Amino acid sequence: MSAALGKDLVGLEQLTADQIRLILDTAEPFKEVSERPIKKVPALRGKTIVNLFFEASTRTRISFEFAEKRLSADTVNVAASGSSVQKGETLVDTAKNLEAMRIDMVVIRHPSSGAAQFLGDRIRSNVVNAGDGKHEHPTQALLDLLTIRDRHGTIAGLKVCLVGDVLHSRVARSNIWGLLKLGAEVGVCGPDTLVPRAIEELGVCRFRRIEEAIEWAQVLNVLRLQLERMEMGFIPSLREYYRVFGVTLDRLEKAPRPLTIMHPGPMNRGVEIDSRVADGPHSVILAQVTNGVAVRMAVLYLLAGGRPELADAAKRVGGTIGGTE
Amino acid sequence: MSRPERTIILDARALSRALQRMAVEVLELAHRTEHLVLIGIQRRGVELAERIAKLIERDEGVIVPRGALDITLYRDDLETIGPKPVIGETRLPGDLDGKHVVIVDDVLYTGRTARAALDELADFGRPQRISLCVLVDRGGRELPIQPDIVGKQVKVNSGERVEVLVEELDGRDEVALVAAGAAP
């Protein structure tokens, strides 16, 4: 079976374990490209990519932009504010207009779940989901997987716990799919108001106390607590949240083993995570950011090549053996 | 004229002799070894560069820096062949400025790999000189590129494929001509 990705990357739910491994393996050599004196390869020369961001984002947008530029693609950034979107244009009309200018790919961030899929079904260009509502944020989960694999050598059998606002988190959803597909054991921990009911049905363990999660897990992926959740009544106060669910040094020191600490950013220090933990020796939070560029390069590269039937044919005639170039 | 499905061009001993001769030719080409760098093209070029470097080490008593280059991202045919499943490692031994770089590959065919390698090397520095050293030259060039050192020249029809096997990756040393449609 071909492990190629198809036209779009909407979420990890639709991918097979082989496809996820293909992306992670492809990301490996891209790490080195960012260490070169000239941080650029010509793989996507002549491709035009539009970054269509309907929601605020710094890290993800910049990470995609670096990935695109280091592959030599031409990029255009479109933000919702100050664009025709504000004048009432629909998502499809915006995309079709862009496509009429002959683009090759769209990277989309949108507040509505399903926006990336919706767009992918309606335009010819490749679509990469950079976060859609509460649905998925596949490249974030992929960079998390790559970082876990770097640190632990393997993902299968590893115990990974997602901590915090699982209910509103597309990062959590993508992580759960990816981790389960690669054979990790997945836990979730957070207040009842912020963890979906019956989440166990996805095949994850539910922890109600952070101390239990820390005792169980080898990796903690601490999710960002959106500060507006407090106003919406999901938690009583930030201070109380930190007291009950905060990932603190005191709690981690009681763990039977050192835990790898991850956070998708941006962090609320002193809310979901203790500064001493975020900056501590087991934190891989900045490694996640570095890996983000490599993973996004891999995704763009794999989608751009997107004619798997030809790749398969090339393999059948032995295109790679003996370098019969 | 029909050939059998698989014809051995070089067996292990012939391959070893060819490499021996190539190592001597690299030395003749370079005059001196202090600026010499051997860079193998992924995959099998890397192993061949390693072997040639070791032969030079043995005969001259000097260590020749070697590196590996994966040219996948510099290819001009991403659209048609699709992405290669896994890209190999690129690892260069320090600064290339002023060096004499010898590119080592297993098979020279269209010349497109060599073209890509030249482009990629240019992004790493400005070598004083770049030479091309290949185990098998099968003809069929599509670009004005010629090798400086050749292990074996073979006339190959377009449907046929040159298969290079090396001990480190394939368990044995052998170069064979494989007919079109034959199982790899």
Briefly characterize the structure:
Chain A has helices spanning 17-33, 59-70, 91-100, 115-120, 138-152, 170-181, 210-216, 228-231, 238-245, 249-253, 275-278, 285-305, 308-316; strands spanning 48-53, 74-79, 105-110, 126-132, 159-163, 185-189, 205-207, 219-222, 260-262. By secondary structure, chain A is an alpha/beta fold.
Written description of the protein model:
The complex is a heterodimer of chains A (325) and B (184). By secondary structure, chain A is α/β, with parallel strands linked by helices. Chain A is built from 13 helices and nine strands. In chain A, strand 5 (159-163), helix 6 and strand 6 (185-189) form a beta-alpha-beta unit. The two termini of chain A are 25 Å apart. Chain B has five helices and eight strands. In chain B, helix 1 crosses helix 2 (44-60). The radius of gyration of chain B is 16 Å and the shape is globular. The two termini of chain B are 22 Å apart. Chain A binds chain B through residues 3-4, 22, 25-26, 28-30, 32-33, 36-38, 40-44, 71, 301-302, 304-308, 310-312, 314, 317-325, and chain B through 41, 43-45, 70, 72-75, 78-91, 105-110, 112-113, 119-120, 123-125, 138, 161-165, 178, 180, 184.
- Rg calc of chain A: 20 Å
Poorly predicted tracts of residues of chain A? 306-325
Overall body shape of chain B:
globular
Major sheet of chain A: order of its strands?
7-6-5-8-9
Q: Could you tell me the mean pLDDT of chain A?
A: 90
Count every helix of chain B, treating DSSP H or I runs of 4 or more residues as helices.
Answer: 5
**Which oligomeric state applies?**
heterodimer
* Helix coverage percent of chain A: 40-55%
